[in-house]
Structures are given as C-alpha cells and as structure tokens.
Specification:
Elements lengths: L29 H13 L13 E6 L15 E2 L27 E7 L10 E8 L3 H10 L12 E8 L38 E2 L7 E2 L2 H15 L26 E7 L25 H8 L4 H14 L7 E3 L31 E7 L2 H5 L13 E7 L10 E2 L1 E5 L9
Antiparallel strand pairs: 1-8, 1-9, 2-3, 2-8, 3-4, 4-5, 5-12, 6-7, 9-10, 10-11, 11-13
Helix pairs in contact: 1-5
Length: about 425
C-alpha cells in the first residue's frame, strides 16, 4: 500500500458543517446553477483517464501515539519534521533551499510508497518541501515552464528515497507498532536544532552542541533564547530531555499522520446540489482563493475541469492527497489551463527515463495546516508529483523528482 492505513479516530469532526465550496455563491441566480450542472454533465463523457484508475485517497488525523510517526514505522505524514528513511545521506547544498529566496525549504509531507517489483524498492518514500512564501511560489510558476525544466529555479521540491529490505537502518521484520520498535544502529545524522529538518552541518561556536543547517537558522535560534541557554548547556551535557530534542522553531506546520482509503469506497452518487453540511468550505465561508479561481476561468474548458474536480472531491471532501502510480494514471486537475504537456515534464535526471504521475496534493491540506486565508498566504489549486517511472537506483540517497504546481489564479503568475 502506498500509505500506511490507520483507524479513523474522529479527527475530521472538526470539519463538521464545512465543505468544499460550490462553484456558485449565495447570490448566483438559477441560470448560473444550471450552467454548472450542465458543465458537469457535459464532462461525463470526457472524464480524465485518472478516473479509470484505482486511486488511493489520503486523509490527515492526529497521531494516536507519540511514537506513531517515528521513521522505523515508515509513516506517511504531513507537517512537523520529516521521518527520513535514510537518516544519513540527506539532501544537501542548494537542493534544500528555495531557489528564489535562498531560505531552507519547509517540510510539507511525505508518503511511504514501496513497490513490489524490485528488491531495491522494498522501502520507498517521497518527500515534498515548499517555501512558505507565496511570492516565491508565484515566481516558481514562471520557472516551471522553462525548457529544459531541469534548469529551472524552484520553490517546491520533491525527493525520492528507497532501500532494500536488508539495509543497515531497519530490521527485516515488519514493525510491531506497539511502541517497542527501534531502528538499527545509532548513526543518524545530526539535524538542525531550529527546523529539525535538514542536516546540521554547522555548530554553535559557544556550546559546541547545537547544530544548524544554515546561518539564518542559527541566528533565529540565538535570538529566540539560545543565547541564554547555551551558557548552561555544558553543565547539562548528556542529560538532554526529549523536549530538548524537539525543533526550536514555532513556525513549523502542525503534525498529522496521513491515513488512506480507496476512492472506490466513496464511489456513490453525489447530489447535484453540493451545498450540504459535509463540504470543506461552506457557502458562507467561501474563501477568496475560490472566488479568484472562478473569476479567472479561461472559457468552458476551465469550467468543465472545475465541475469534474468538484464532483469527485465532494465524494470525500476531507481528502488532502490523491495517489495512483498505475500506468497511464493522470491527476485530477482543477483547471484545464496551466496543465503541463508531456514535454513539460522532464525525464529523470539520473537514468534518463520518463517520469510518471504518482500523487497530487489538494488545497484542503492548507486548512489543516492552519495557513491563513489572505492575499499573501501560501495557496495552490494542486501540487502534482511526477517520479521516475523506473524508480531508478543510484548512489544518491535522495533523488530529486519533479513537482508541478497549479496556482488558484493564473493571473497571479509572475511574467
């Protein structure tokens, strides 16, 4: 299974009385509503190939135990810090930075997605990072259209890591999920004390204990209180608590476990009137990004895509991720404009083979992460991840794959 299945603990109750917003708003007349229904019906004969493939839906919920998201349990998760599959050979250098502003990227989510066709992919995970700056994402939109795309500057990056069953980090036996599972050895690379995400290859010159991925994070930690605490660190050496091991940054996104369900379980007829109490954003709470998206539709093709997108998402409105690595699978695009062609997706930079669609992240995740809804806040219509179709091996512990971002409003893209 691409994501570890967890039992539903009722965390979606916080979404009671909210749902995915309908295309029309409260003041639209009957003709507008009929137009939406007609567009959705017209699209029935032209549904994307993705609809014909078995799709796994990802939902977020708070972890049931403090150990549920440790790396030796191979979790799928969103927010917080990554559970690195290979804890040593982490992405380094500029690959971990936003190419626009030069700041370290922030962890968005990871998906545990092993494949059974080769021993080398017995363990396999994808990691998605983004710059939290919306101006950087808008510049990213211009860059992703560059040819060749491998030379583009990006604010959204994705990495793939895979290991055989017999490896130096984990037991060959499946985890017991009872709190007793431990990784093999203790050779994990030290992580940045501020973000807890990237390798800490810089060290505090005073205490010689705190490590950082960048001078920026070292300065932020110093100003937030390390200036005082590092003076006492020598007396507490070897007595650090679990709290001391947590990242010092308070700007990380809240942490969730991603659990999965087959979309087929939600394949029921959805009433034409999508205004029900189970949608993600109620009509009274329709946010500006949805209005902006509708306003920027470029003809009937965008409206048809939006109608199809709305119809499918409404079947399971709390979904934050869609996964399907089957041959010929395609994303569920909110809009037809801004979609890449096959030529826009670069081949794997390691083996030269084509990349294929593997997963997409939906804008519902922004709600769970607590991202504010204003003009400068991070926002997307969807983030689509393409990975090497051969899932090739190689020396690099983490291979960079390709992410295509469709923003809510094409007019916002920096020329």
């Amino acid at each position: 299974m691409p994501m570890e299945i967890g039992e539903n603990d009722g965390s979606v109750e916080m979404l009671k009385n909210i749902h995915i917003s309908s295309y029309e708003d409260d003041n639209d007349d009957d003709a507008d509503r009929e137009e939406v229904e007609d567009l959705m019906n017209d699209d029935d004969d032209n549904e994307n190939d993705e609809v014909q493939k078995p799709v796994t839906l990802g939902f977020v919920e708070k972890p049931k135990n403090k150990w549920s998201l440790l790396r030796q349990l191979f979790p799928s998760k969103a927010g917080g810090v990554p559970a690195w599959l290979d804890p040593n050979d982490l992405p380094s250098g500029r690959s971990r930075l936003c190419d626009m502003c030069g700041e370290p990227l922030q962890f968005l989510l990871q998906v545990y997605a092993p494949t059974s066709d080769r021993e080398s992919t017995f363990h396999r995970a994808l990691y998605l990072f983004t710059c939290p700056s919306m101006p950087c994402l808008l510049r990213d939109q211009h860059e992703q259209w560059k040819q060749p795309a491998v030379n583009a500057s990006r604010s959204v990056k994705v990495f793939r890591c895979q290991l055989p069953r017999d490896n130096p980090f984990y037991s060959t036996e499946p985890p017991r999920h009872d709190g007793s599972d431990k990784p093999l050895g203790s050779g994990a690379a030290p992580l940045c004390k501020w973000c807890g995400t990237w390798k800490g290859d810089k060290v505090c010159g005073s205490c010689r204990e705190a490590r950082y991925c960048s001078e920026k994070h070292q300065a932020m930690h110093w100003r937030s209180g390390h200036k005082v605490t590092c003076q006492n660190s020598s007396t507490n050496a070897g007595n650090s608590s679990a709290e001391d091991q947590k990242p010092a940054s308070r700007s990380l996104w809240p942490e969730y476990e991603i659990v999965n369900e087959d979309e087929a379980e939600y394949d029921v007829n959805v009433p034409a009137d999508l205004d029900n109490t189970d949608c993600l954003v109620s009509r009274n709470q329709m946010d500006d990004s949805i209005n902006s998206l509708v306003d920027c539709f470029q003809g009937d093709s965008d409206r048809r895509s939006w109608g199809n997108f709305q119809e499918r998402i409404a079947r399971a409105p709390e979904q934050v991720l869609r996964y399907c690595r089957n041959v010929g699978a395609r994303p569920l695009w909110p809009m037809s404009s801004g979609q890449p062609s096959t030529a826009d997706i670069p081949n794997c930079s390691y083996c030269g083979k084509p990349r294929c669609f593997e997963l997409q992240v939906l804008p519902q995740l922004l709600y769970f992460l607590g991202v504010e809804n204003n003009a400068d806040s991070l926002d997307w219509a969807t983030i689509v991840v393409y990975s090497c179709e051969a899932s090739c091996d190689g020396a690099a512990g983490y291979k960079e794959e390709f992410a295509w971002v469709q923003v809510s409003s094409p007019s916002q893209v920096v020329p």
